[in-house]
C-alpha cells in the first residue's frame, strides 16, 4: 500500500461561487488559503482545505462603487461575518468511489456535506474538482431566505449556493 500526501498549490487552485435570487444570480471567486490531500494506492482518502472568506470577489458587478458595497454586504453579519470568521474549512471524513463526504465549517458552524469529485493523479500532481451545493441557512445565513421571512417577492434569495472547487496539489 502506497500512501502519499499532497500539498494544495493555492496559486493554481480556485473556487467559483454562484448565488441565486428570484431576479437572477451573482457569481465570483473565493480563494483557497491552504490545505492538503491524502492518497492511498492512487485513491483519495482524506484531507482538508481552508477557504479565505476575505478573498471573496464579485465578478458580475462591473460598477466599482456597487461592487464595493456588495462586498461589504457579503462581509457583514447578514452573510459571512468575515471580521469574526475570516476562514471557512472543509475536512474530508470519507471517500466512496467518487463521492466525497466531509465537514464544512462556515461562521463556526459545522455540517456534513457530500458531493461528487473528479480526482486525477499524474506524476507528482493531483487535480480534483467538484461542485458543492451549500444550504446557507444551515450556517446562520438567513438574509432574505424564504424559510425565515415572508412577503419577500422578487427580493428573495435562494437558500442554496454553489461552490465549484478546482484543486491542484503537489506531492509533499
From TrEMBL:
Q: Which Pfam families match?
A: YceI (PF04264)
Looking up Gene3D superfamilies in the UniProt record yields: Lipid/polyisoprenoid-binding, YceI-like (2.40.128.110)
Identify the stretch annotated as signal peptide in this record: none
Q: Tell me the ranges covered by the Lipid/polyisoprenoid-binding YceI-like domain, including all copies.
A: 5-170
Top-level taxon in the UniProt lineage = Bacteria
- InterPro entries per the UniProt record, alphabetical: Lipid/polyisoprenoid-bd_YceI, TTHA0802/YceI-like_sf
| PANTHER family recorded | PROTEIN YCEI
Q: What is this protein called?
A: YceI family protein
Where does this protein come from, organism-wise?
Niastella soli
Amino acid at each position: 500500500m502506497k500512501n502519499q500526501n499532497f500539498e494544495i498549490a493555492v496559486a493554481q487552485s480556485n473556487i467559483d461561487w454562484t448565488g441565486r435570487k428570484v431576479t437572477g444570480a451573482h457569481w465570483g471567486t473565493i480563494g483557497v488559503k491552504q490545505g492538503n490531500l491524502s492518497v492511498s494506492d492512487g485513491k483519495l482518502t482524506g484531507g482538508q482545505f481552508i477557504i479565505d472568506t476575505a478573498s471573496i470577489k464579485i465578478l458580475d458587478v462591473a460598477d466599482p462603487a456597487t461592487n464595493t458595497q456588495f462586498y461589504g454586504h457579503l462581509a457583514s453579519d447578514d452573510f459571512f461575518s468575515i471580521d469574526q470568521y475570516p476562514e471557512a474549512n472543509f475536512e474530508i471524513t470519507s471517500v466512496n468511489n467518487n463521492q466525497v463526504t466531509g465537514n464544512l465549517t462556515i461562521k463556526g458552524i459545522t455540517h456534513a456535506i457530500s458531493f461528487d469529485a473528479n480526482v486525477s493523479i499524474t506524476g507528482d500532481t493531483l487535480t480534483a474538482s467538484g461542485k458543492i451545493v451549500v444550504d446557507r441557512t444551515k450556517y446562520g445565513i438567513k438574509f432574505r431566505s424564504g424559510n425565515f421571512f415572508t412577503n419577500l417577492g422578487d427580493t428573495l434569495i435562494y437558500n442554496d449556493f454553489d461552490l465549484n472547487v478546482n484543486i491542484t496539489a503537489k506531492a509533499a
